[in-house]
Amino acid sequence: MRPFRYERPGAIAEAVALQATTPEARFLAGGTNLVDLMRLGVEAPRTLIDVNHLGLDGIEPTPSGGLLIGAGVRNTVLAVDPDVRARYPLLSSALLNGASGQLRNLATVGGNLLQRTRCVYFQDPTKPCNKRRLGSGCPARAGEHHNLAVLGHSALCLATHPSDMAVALAALGAAVHTEGPEGARRLGLPELYRLPGEDPQRETCLAPAELITAVELPAPPAGAAHYRKVRERRSYAFALVSVAAVLDAAADGTVAAVRLAFGGVAPIPWRATVAEAALEGKPATAESFTAAIAAELSSADPLPGNAYKIPLLTRVAVRTLTELVQAA
Hints:
The chain is of the alpha+beta class. The protein contains eleven helices and twelve strands. The protein has helices at about 10-20, 35-40, 75-80, 80-85, 90-100, 100-105, 110-115, 165-170, 275-280, 285-295, 310-325; strands at about 5, 25-30, 45-50, 60, 65-70, 175-180, 185-190, 210-215, 225-230, 240-250, 255-265, 270. The longest helix is centred in the last third of the chain and has 19 residues, at about 310-325. The chain is globular, with a radius of gyration of 20 Å.
């Protein structure tokens, strides 16, 4: 690990200014992803700016009936918060499915959103990777890609976003509050993220030195909600596919409203807007659900090693929506 400086600013503005004026500096919160990447040699910041003491660890109601969650709130604290468990069980479930208790106790909301891919080529500095060094190539295309993207990827990068929490937040219509050199911003989610396109090194729309300060949840949507994750082992692992769903069924058996987001299949938490539009007003049946998911996946571009994700995601999504109709 390369030697680095450690800074502990006392205010958000000080942290932002320090990041903006310090070459190769990174914000440090829980460190559950950044420190791992430093040990691997993937990340080598010259300065770490500790943002754990900036008052970003609160959860409070908003005037519109939602919640404002500080970026420094630990994942365990958020998962077991009584208001979150009662009003946003989808979010609590995603967090509890995302990592072990030890990791949740350290990991923060802001860091969870910004964690980087677990692609084996990205994590190995001895291998080429366009995300680490643009133009070096993407060996995953001809190599190990069984758990990489089938949606939204490009010729330069197949990496998937690993966050379970971000998938739930996308389905719930959350927004991200930031503070940067140009002032405060509010970004919708998943609009926080960028698809790889021709520049897979840029993963978010955050400007240099822009710090996530909070996540805002709107009032809970009507209907039943569930988060389902399929992984390769029962112990904590990253999703092969995951589905965050909220379904409000009308009295006549049609879909009054639906929200869907997918994980494990794209470089970003994938909001399934095509499927949502296809289901509005349609019968709340397995046939309708299957057709809507097929429409969403019509743009998928799988490779031989991950083509299984298409039927797997379809079955998981249809089962989840069907169970929500029964729950309603």
